[in-house]
Design a protein that fits this description.
Blueprint: H1 7-23, H2 25-35, H3 40-48, H4 54-57, H5 60-72, H6 79-90, E1 98-102, E2 108-110, E3 117-122, E4 125-130, E5 136-139, E6 148-151, H7 155-158, E7 160-164, H8 166-199, E8 201-202, E9 205-206, H9 211-236, H10 241-266, H11 278-281, H12 284-289, H13 293-307
Parallel strand pairs: 1-3
Antiparallel strand pairs: 2-6, 3-4, 4-7, 5-6, 8-9
Helix pairs in contact: 1-3, 1-5, 5-6, 5-8, 5-9, 6-8, 8-9, 8-10, 9-10, 10-13
Length: 308
Amino acid sequence: MELRLNEIQQQIVDSIDRIVDRAGGTAHLVKVVDESGFDRAMFDELAQAGFLGLALDLSPLDATIATERLAYHGAYVPMGATALVYPMVTGKAAAGPVALAPGDDGAIFRYGQNAKHILIDDGDEALLLDVADGDVTVVDNDRAGTPLARLAGNAKGRATSLGAGSGDKLRQWWRLAIAAEAAGTVRGALKLTARYLTDRIQFGRPLATFQTLQHRMSHIAVQSEGAYWLAMEAAARPDSPSHAAIAATRAIMAARLAFRETHQMHGAMGFTREYPLHLWSMKLPALQQELGGATGHARAVTAERWAA
């Protein structure tokens, strides 16, 4: 099995790295979170560079790689929903940002107020809503992470059904998007924590030299790598919904561990807005709730395997 990126995939990663660097890195992300939680300028640059059509122009794997890499950098753009889920469910590239919403009345979802399209999980069917004024209600999240919203009024009633069975397809690709974003976010938080432990001196030596912390960091690293490669495998197996569910299950388990451990290992520093850990860590609680969280993903694996 080839476990290296091919030339085109490496170019995707390198291009994303350059876009993030041009935007201003961590300082830019802090400003985005303080202002809106959605990086419109970065999203527009990604769209102009052709990233929104990766799943159709190249493959779902390439779109998954881009989703994971942006999450690794802490970018605040709905890459998974827009570049992976939407094209694989609808068969066409999105014309703007996409949000993914549960069908339950009053359910909260990410990026709703920024979306041009919203895909709604309505059981057997997926619904597509082209967003108009008044379709979403903003939910205050204290600007700690991504923007949150609810569907308002009769918005769901205006949505178009994508046909019987489209709900299963939506949930498969949504789970892969969750897995990719969670894996990248955990890797980004791990990198920041490793740097902190290396720089922070305690009892005359770096925290990174303490064996207990090394073991804890190793545990996160193993979980992170497992989540990453399961997401890549699921993307390479588009006909296997169970692989997407397995990847999402592992990624959310890694997210739980990383959220707890990275904050603890930063001590009080990790709980301040002045330090950038929240740019990664505060995304993880929302990801842990989508599609029923780890329990929902695990049940989907069981249902797929039992049906087989």
